[in-house]
Amino acid sequence: MKKSQIKNTKWISEVIFLCGVLILWQLLYVLGVDILSLWKPYAMPSPAGVLKSLCALLSDMSLLTAVGYSLLRGISGYMISIVTGCFLGFLMNHFPYLRQNLRPVVMGIQTLPSVCWVPFSILWFGLTQQAIIFVVIMGSAFSIAIAADNAIRNVPVIYKKAALTMGADSKQIYREIILPASLPELISGLKQGWSFAWRALMSGEVMTTCIGLGQTLIEGRNLADINQVMLVMIVIVLIGILIDQIIFSKLERHVYQKRGL
Amino acid sequence: MSLVLKNVSKIFEDSKEDVLYRINLEIKKGEFVCVVGKSGCGKSTLLNLIAGLEKPTEGEILLNGNPVTAPGSDRTVMFQEHALFPWLSVVQNVKFGMKMARVSPKEQEEKAMKYLQMVGLAEYKDHAIHQLSGGMRQRVALARAMTMDSAILLMDEPFSALDKQTSNRLRSELQDMWLRTRQTILFITHSVEEAVYLADRIVIMSPSAHSIANIVPVELERPRHVYDAEFVEYRRKILKEVEGNQEK
Ligand SMILES: Nc1ncnc2c1ncn2[C@@H]1O[C@H](COP(=O)(O)OP(=O)(O)OP(=O)(O)O)[C@@H](O)[C@H]1O
Ligand SMILES: [Mg+2]
């Protein structure tokens, strides 16, 4: 009862804070644009303007369509990243040769900002869905590979030894020991991978012409509608937070709690 | 069943000196053998060699006449730090070895519960590992090791991470368990008292010679009591040998 009360007041204070920020923002807009004319109206968004933008984009369904397409692309690219990333991580662990020679390369590629893949992907795939998905994969698969490699490597040796002396074969060691033992770290890696994938998705979408949040953003710029740009940015942040909180944080908490970590 | 070590030596790649030099030892079915010796004299190395977790540089290890080449469930190890799996519940941990051997679920359940009862933790079967105390964890590890029906059970200082009181209680429980099952056990400890309490024979390792200094049979009635005059005498005698080896 006490705990839920604390949670309630926390939630309320957060809402009050956000309302305060919105009011301040609107006041600043009125002061800076309408009264003092410091900024041009087309260069400064306002809460009211963003709200109007929201209504407009909701009424013609274009916002929801864009969110749907972006999510679909992001998730499919991310899924491919998980599979290839985990597979790469597994390979680097299984073959010392790859650990020694491939790992530094993967580490290097991982530091590359995902935008850098855009020219390549447009040359290979044109201004298509596939081009965007390619950027998403390149932007997240390598970080997942490194995370998976680390997670597997950090499995305490004693677990493997104990399992070996209980008669486990190498397949069982992977399934019954390495997979579950590396899970908490792997989930943290996947969470980070998603944030990379989501950012890469936006770099890809901004550069191509497929329907999606990135295009809605660019469209806002082309129409000199700063409110639309702002709205899309807010939506991108919200989706990022939502997926992080709803899926990954819950999963992480569940796995960690079960093991008393 | 018999375990035979013939002239077993071990040198680690990164060290020039032998850690073990020409060890000869035979353990018979139903025996409880304790290994004592100062820290760093190679007790754990000896156990790892028998377990198949390390390979001898020289000599051979034979279990029922067959050379030991890899780890296997006929030589289950119980480690000092509990090696229980935190992602499994108590009973799932106890079943682990049987699951690897594809024992039927019904038999897994029966046997797991039998040994959990023996260590007094049946009612904790669905607990998570992190909810148990150190002593309880080692009891679960013991139950898990017992389900394997290994030819020989290898125990590497299983109670030394526990406080004195708990470790005394656990060793007396281990003695009760052994009296009931007569499981063949090789038990490593740095506590002479623990060795005298548990062992049929005590293997005294010599750190200077990297080999066995002496093997002393303990001819005391079971259950044993640490305050009996005979017990104290054994303890004194072996302690002297262990310390004596140290000085040479
Ligand atoms: N993997 C290894 N590589 C190199 N040297 C090792 C390795 N394992 C053990 N040693 C060395 O072998 C010697 C014996 O180690 P071991 O762990 O067998 O001793 P111990 O008798 O079990 O000691 P303790 O009572 O402290 O557990 C030590 O000097 C140690 O440094
Ligand atoms: Mg040791």
Please give a quick description of this structure.
Chain A has 261 residues and is mainly alpha-helical. Chain A contains ten helices and no strands.
Of all chain pairs, the largest interface belongs to: A-B, 21 and 29 residues
Number of strands of chain A: 0
Cα-atom radius of gyration of chain A: 23 Å
What would you call the structural class of chain A? mainly alpha
Average pLDDT figure of chain B: 91
Helix count of chain B equals: 7
Determine the CATH superfamily of the largest domain in chain B.
P-loop containing nucleotide triphosphate hydrolases
Proportion of residues in extended strands of chain B = 15-25%
What count of domains describes the coordinates of chain B? 2
Task: Give the count of structural domains of chain A.
Answer: 2
> What small-molecule ligands were found?
adenosine-5'-triphosphate, magnesium ion
Average pLDDT number of chain A: 91
N-C termini distance of chain B: 36 Å
Structural category of chain B is alpha/beta
| CATH architecture heading of the largest domain in chain B | 3-Layer(aba) Sandwich
Parts with pLDDT < 50 across at least 5 consecutive residues of chain A: none
Give an overview in words:
The complex is a heterodimer of chains A (261) and B (248). With 261 residues, chain A is mainly α. Chain A is 83% helix and 0% strand. Chain A has helices at residues 2-35, 47-59, 62-94, 96-110, 118-125, 129-153, 157-164, 170-207, 213-222, 226-258. The longest helix of chain A is centred in the last third of the chain and has 38 residues, at 170-207. Chain A starts with a helix and ends with a helix. Chain B has seven helices and ten strands. Chain B has a six-stranded mixed sheet with strand order 6-7-8-3-9-10, sandwiched between helices. In chain B, strands 2-1-4-5 form a four-stranded antiparallel sheet, with helices on one face. In chain B, helix 2 runs parallel beside helix 4 and helix 6 packs across helix 7. The chains are: A mainly alpha (261), B alpha/beta (248). At the A-B interface, helix 7 and helix 8 of A face helix 2 of B. Bound molecules: adenosine-5'-triphosphate and magnesium ion. Magnesium ion binds at residues 43-44, 156 of chain B.
